[in-house]
Amino acid sequence: MDKTKKLTIKDIATKANVSTATVSRYLNGQLNQMSEKTAAKLKKIIKETAYIRNSAAVQLAKQKSNLIAVIASNIDEYFSSEYFKGIVSILSAQGYIGVLFDSNSDKIIESALLESVYNQNFAGLILQPLSTDRRLIEKFSNNHIPVVLIDRDIGNGEISAVTTNNFQVTKFAMTSFLDKGFKKVTIITEPVNDISTRVERVAGARSVFDHVQLIEVDTDHLDLAELSDKIDIKNSKNLLFVLKERLLIQLIANTDLLNETTSQQRLTGFVDTNIPKYLAPKYKFIQQSPYLMGATAAEILMAQFLEQQTTDIKQIVIPSHFE
Amino acid sequence: MDKTKKLTIKDIATKANVSTATVSRYLNGQLNQMSEKTAAKLKKIIKETAYIRNSAAVQLAKQKSNLIAVIASNIDEYFSSEYFKGIVSILSAQGYIGVLFDSNSDKIIESALLESVYNQNFAGLILQPLSTDRRLIEKFSNNHIPVVLIDRDIGNGEISAVTTNNFQVTKFAMTSFLDKGFKKVTIITEPVNDISTRVERVAGARSVFDHVQLIEVDTDHLDLAELSDKIDIKNSKNLLFVLKERLLIQLIANTDLLNETTSQQRLTGFVDTNIPKYLAPKYKFIQQSPYLMGATAAEILMAQFLEQQTTDIKQIVIPSHFE
DNA sequence: TTGTAAGCGTTATCAA
DNA sequence: TTGATAACGCTTACAA
């Protein structure tokens, strides 16, 4: 039971009285290139001995790896695990395996990860970017390693990307509130910096409301008292628009907005789970489709493998819904 | 800029006018085995050419992979991403990379993943088990691939495992409620089956309360009305003990327990995030330490690599806290 | 301090 | 339908 020596293709060949070439052919499914008898014999022996190939040797000989790196900006977000699931669902069907890395919302870590991933000879990269610096990413493209961005874009359309319709869906949601009589919107978000999702959402709100207040906070060190001071909470025509689910939940839990006598919704935002719906069943939020975004990104990546060329850039938008 | 040919160690050797062995030594940090001059020259050339080694070839030559598989029972749980972070923090410091897989709460998927991971020649496995079937896992041990279980144990102490003190912490928490006058506890959980964490938590409650009611539900299809019917909600001496955070949040959001006139806490459970604390700041919950559990599991795995032997089994308990 | 060369386990070309 | 064998890119005795 406890074989101390690892079996190789040579051992199998010997046992079966064939050459290693034949075993290799069997392993690669070229069954039409051998007699049924040989195939049956190999099948039996391989099963009995529980032989498994050495994937490093396969990679070396075939000159290709089956590892795809996925770098999330922060895996604490439910959004990340969900799109990762989508990615894996596509990759594994094609024999590739997805490896998840976490930038932990830190550009320095992101750089280090990109560097390290690059050095590890991954076959491809799916990146939810933090930095807008394209230089590190170009290193991949220059070496014919396909890259697909997810969630956020960084500019010039030179890299394939799967994003959502941040501007439009925000505009749509904001318009519905404008129609209900709201006069002003207060956006609560982590620092916008130049992160495309946030920039577009703010722009979406500005395209509807003349009066937009922007409050940037740190989710992990949220000072609710300080925040309340900044918000014109008395004004029932002031909508609160929260760009991050975790922040939204904190606000739902800590304000009286839900229990107001006026039954009108005064709080909305982008959500990834159904927790906000548990807390406020009648409210409408902007719901994204991370799983689908992940699957789409993986499909684009797979396509780039087939087409040899890294030159076929695709920009796909997976719509979010206000409901 | 766009090298069409991949550089090899040979190219570097040629450029530097040394042998491939010397380049290899440089790459492996054996700087004391060469002149400073040679080292400097190589450093320069490698930097200029942006050479990277072929990791498949390294693995083949060194006869070891640097990939560790991590199989989570369900990556939707915040618990998983947190312990995965802990694992990665230890692994990457040692040059290993962690690969996350998701059983998606499905034993069939888990089997398939174990099989597939086994076939991919991973160097080690960290598993949050769903099934208690040890046969698939023994395949790894028999091939000298170290395995460490996390969160849940499956029995006979033959496999290293990092768990938490489910029984004790539950007993401690239940006792504090007993002392406050509660007479009965209703446990709400996903089906207990033979999942060790759940079994131990139920046992912990039974060790304190004579009257224990067990309600098994499906988080994704929770019928609140049906659930309410089963609970003796009128009885203010009936404690609700929820074993899963997502369930707990749903209950907090959908019952009036929080807003009762009696200011006594009647609801508690196991939590992984601080969301429940947002919702009920004065309540005490049982808080686990997934990050630490992950890091510990990874450390045990690393230790097993060094000790050659897979025989040194460790069982570590990372305590949870009621606070 | 450096070089030579024999592996590592597979694949794939060419010949039989 | 099969087999021999040269790659694949790197590591590591062993020699020098």
Condensed summary:
With 323 residues, chain A is an alpha/beta fold. Helices cover 43% and strands 17% of the residues of chain A. In chain A, helix 1 (9-16) packs across helix 2, helix 5 (78-93) runs parallel beside helix 13 (290-306) and helix 6 (107-119) runs parallel beside helix 7.
Distinctive features:
alpha/beta; Rossmann fold; homodimer; six-stranded mixed beta sheet; 3 domains; six-stranded parallel beta sheet; 323 residues; DNA-binding
* Structural class by sheet pairing and helices of chain A: alpha/beta
Q: In order across it, which strands form the biggest sheet of chain A?
A: 2-1-3-4-5-11
Outline of chain A, from the CA principal axes? Answer: elongated
Rg for CA atoms of chain A: 26 Å
What is the helical fraction of chain A, as a range of percent? 40-55%
Q: How many strands, which pairing sense, and closed or not: the largest β-sheet of chain A?
A: 6 strands, parallel
Distance linking N and C termini of chain A: 58 Å
CATH class of the largest domain in chain A: Alpha Beta
What's the assembly state of these chains?
homodimer
- Return the domain count of chain A: 3
The name CATH uses for the topology of the largest domain in chain A is Rossmann fold
List the secondary-structure elements of chain A in sequence, H or E.
Answer: HHHHEHEHEHEEHEHEHEHEHEHEE
